[in-house]
Predict the structure.
Amino acid sequence: MFKKFIALALASLMVVGALAGCGGNNTDNTDNTATENTTTADGASENTGATGGTIKIGATGPLTGDTAVYGKAVQNGAQLAVDEINAAGGVNGYQLEFKMQDDENDVEKAATAYNALKDWGMQISLGSVTSKPCINVNSYASQDNMFLLTPSATAVESINTDNAFRVCFSDPNQGAKSAEYISQQGLATKIAVIYDSSDPYSSGIYNTFKAEAEKDGLEIVAAEAFTSDAKSDFSVHLQKAQSAGAELVFLPIYYQEASLILQQAKSKGYEPLFFGCDGLDGILAMDNFDTSLAEGVMLLTPFAADAQDEKTVTFVSAFKEKFNETPNQFAADAYDAIYAIKAALEKGNVTDPTMNYSDLCNILKVAMTEITVEGVTGTITWTADGEPNKEPKGMIIEDGAYKAM
Amino acid sequence: MEFISYLVNGISLGSIYALIALGYTMVYGIAKMLNFAHGDVIMIGGYVVFTSMTTMGMPTWVSILIGIVFCTLLGVVIEKVAYKPLRNATSLAVLITAIGMSYFLQNLALIVFGAGGKTFTSVVSMKPISLFDGQVTISGETIVTIIVSVILMIVLTLFVNRTKPGRAMLAVSEDRGAAQLMGVNVNRTISLTFAIGSGLAAVAGVLMCSSYTTLTPYIGAMPGIRAFVAAVFGGIGSIPGAMIGGILIGIIENLSKAYISSQLSDAIVFAVLIIVLLVKPTGLMGKKIAEKV
């Protein structure tokens, strides 16, 4: 078993290197029928590689470290989309190539990873998977005028320049939508919030949640913060929520801390509703996690793996076949990001894959606002400030799996 | 009633700090070095016990034993490889090496055990105790942690004061050169100190992971720093001081979260530390040793 751990760890290290070699080959994916995922017609689908060349797409994200679940999901989701597109003939006659560099969710390492990708020849960036690294990566990308479409960095500042777009909701958006959803569904009126004041993702959601909650007549009875320096003991936070009579505890945080909160709430015998955002996605994938603790936890996310529409079903089964696990929201966001790039390349009529990234960016940032992508995370259009328009879905954890509400 | 509940939670958190602080203070008191890798040895202990208990399905007590033996050996190896060659170097060099070792262990765990979080299964099967009609609950983990910390504190104090190797430790801590002249094997004594300190780390790791069940390669770092603060607070080098310092830090942290501000609790903890050190520079129970000229 020990060997298995080592093998796994080494394998994940090698994935980064191996991807460089497999992006351009299209022989390994045969089950890609009916996964055509954009509204744009693909006229050049027959002449695979006829005009030749590749467009290189790079991303940085945590492939190791405590948020690696997200990085790996993005890596797999993007790779699946790239393989499908290439097998179906590529974009305008050329192929896509995808490479991901590990940034360990570290701001400095993300910058290094971005530069390494540029050396590799990256023409389009998926930015970073997480918010803080993406802010830094985009500071370089905007200087370079590199087109950036992050699947999952939610902080407002992650894409505050005109070259940058995102697939997921922004923090303010998530906070406001959560409050709206809670009040529309009548889940609770007395709400406690436990958030990480040292994290822009978490405090960003909290701030807009608070503003929207006041408008919707929700009462925040306790707002308790913790910091990344002390994130294991939540007994006081829970005690205050309980004493204040909160019926629902809003958790705009990541799943590691959430798993501790759920466990500590259970040992206190406190059973409110728990409601979270996309940071909770991943909790069920934790090794040895007692999924009964998460029973009834609700989260707002634009993607539900058990949804029955054709696109989701096709995506989920292809993903399962290739990677042997159920895709989470990050994988879905990354999958949509690649298809959005394809749509934008087609909309902008980019036929020369050797085009430099700056010229490409000028075309793509205009094209992005004109496309509509029927993705697995909903029908998405983009505004010029890079924010997506799409509808979130509420999900609930039942019997250790996500179910759409 | 709420106050009692906060207090109990504070003691529970503090008892974990106390247990970690015992290892810090032990190594500092004798080897006169700050072993910043102590928190990470705790993390490794947690992973070893997790692997043998959950992945390999060994019984709990065997797993704990494996964890203690593994960490003890690890501590001795770290001391031999990283610290011993620096025995005569400046204390700053040793300190930097310890910080380097801390990062090394974190990254090693990252490669070996992977990145995703794991959920530790508590080794304590004791039911929580409910007081005042269920308004205050004390978890089994808290009770076991406190009992274990107190026992270890007593055993360590007895060991250091009453046994031959223990007195050799005291001698080394007071004057290394003189101890060597009197026939004490300094290298072996320091190795033994590290072995004991790292064994304690394994115990702390098991109990910390039982209370706070999420296991990642970074769980040792912050509690390690807190425990170091606790050790300084109680008087670094003093075994009972580590215990008292740990529990006080836990209580102050929780009460300030509860009654002042959950955002300011860290600042308050460190402000209290600064005040204590201004008034009593050697910490609460620290010995003031007069320099003989």
About this structure: The first strand of chain B starts at residue 118 and ends at 119.
